[in-house]
Amino acid sequence: MKDLLTTRESAEILGISDARIRQLIYSGKLPSQKIGQMNLVKKADLELIRERKTGRPPKVENGNQTNERKFKTIFDIVPELAGKHDNLPSDLSTNKKYLEGLGRD
Fold first, then answer.
1. Where are the domains of the chain?
2. Does the structure show a pLDDT above 60 at 105?
3. Alpha helices (runs of H) in 4-46, residue ranges in sequence order
4. Which CATH number fits domain 4-50: 1.10.1660.10, 1.20.120.450, 3.40.50.300, 2.102.10.10?
5. Cβ partners under 8 Å of residue 6, min gap 6
6. Residue 28 falls in which region: left (phi positive, over 0), alpha (psi -120 to 50) or beta
7. What pTM was estimated for this model as a whole?
8. Across residues 65-72, what is the average pLDDT?
9. Which pLDDT score, from 0 to 100, does residue 102 have?
10. CA-based diameter of the chain, in Å?
11. Which of 79, 59, 80, 84 is nearest to 70 (CA)?
12. pLDDT tier at 56 (50, 70, 90 boundaries)?
């Protein structure tokens, strides 16, 4: 019994939450023994998950990793819709000459 640990003790050793330990037990990644209402884990079995990779794995398409954007942002769309206007001033709020004639049609 000395080599059996509670989920809380196992979590403290691994530096994760006891809820995560229970998730690993229920998913079958961490073997345990159920005694009453408690899941007990062998200390040696903690090594099975100690070296696991953390976090979400990178997205893979067709066997290749991809970090490429597949969508357009507003910054991509507006120039396409409005067209390119090279004759517009760069800062409309301070260009009085450009603003003078606006709204007077």
1. 4-50
2. no
3. 7-14, 18-26
4. 1.10.1660.10
5. 38, 39, 40, 41
6. left
7. 0.50
8. 62
9. 67
10. 90
11. 59
12. confident
